UniProtKB/TrEMBL annotation:
Source organism of this protein record: Rhizoctonia solani
Entry protein name: Uncharacterized protein
Xref: PANTHER family: PROTEIN CBG02620, START DOMAIN-CONTAINING PROTEIN
Taxonomy of the source species: Eukaryota, Fungi, Dikarya, Basidiomycota, Agaricomycotina
Amino acid sequence: MQPLPKSFSPASKLLRDLDVSTTHPLASILLPDPVDTDCEIRDYQVLGSYNLLDSRTPMIAIPGQPRIWQEPNLPLQLSPDCGFTFIDQNAWRCQESSLEPLFRSISVTQQLLGNTSSPLPEQQIDVVTDRNNLRKLNAMVRSMRSNEMLAPSKRREFRIDAQLAPNGRTLLLTRYSDQLRQMISPDDAGYGTNFEHATTSKYTPILTPTHEQSGRKKFTPTSYHRVAKYRLADLNLLVRYEVDAVQQAPSVDNLLTFEQLSLEQKTIETRKHSTLGHIVSGTLVPQDCVMELKTGKLKW
């Protein structure tokens, strides 16, 4: 490691909620010499999944339900995206702790599967993070390897909040965004959101019993997330990521599903010292079905 140049000054938006009087660059990290060896993901295991729900209080459905891919009829014409879009919906809806849904989904999913032992022995997890953090770090390293700075249109600097867990080993990386959602500018509008809506099924609302006159309350899923544990090089990672859709409607015969639960069973559950509630609802989806949808410009 070497000291950072005095000219280095993070953008003020990255210093929000930090004690600026004690915030100063510590050091820069030099990239080690490349090693000619394989670096592949091993021992991949999905431990949990959930939907964030549209609710005034933090609420998730476990294991949740993804959107289903529906092959569109071509040609497909779309309007540009408009309105608000989420940048970090977990942080927007779970402001006390954006990582809590991750751990709650693992705990409840494993209980549903009948696993009584913890799938997360403290001594075996090195890093807990969102996929977004890994993508930012990967882009930074790749740009430095190629001796090129990140393009001006890309975020050239970013912040990731790091905390060491009480076990003294596990590093918790919390995603940071100065904006949790933003209004799409007409000049920068893409087609990603409208493409997803045009090619996937809508989320099915979840009904729960209530003391209101109607006798039930409706919650609408807004996004679907999965949590996986795997080994990369010498690190054991626990990673959360959003899934846009699944390739086909999973067969109920091969999966554990909770859609058949009666309305009386779909109650809102909470945990001590937490404002996050959860509902058991959805389907455990195999990893080989998940999809990420991307749109881009094509020059003819």
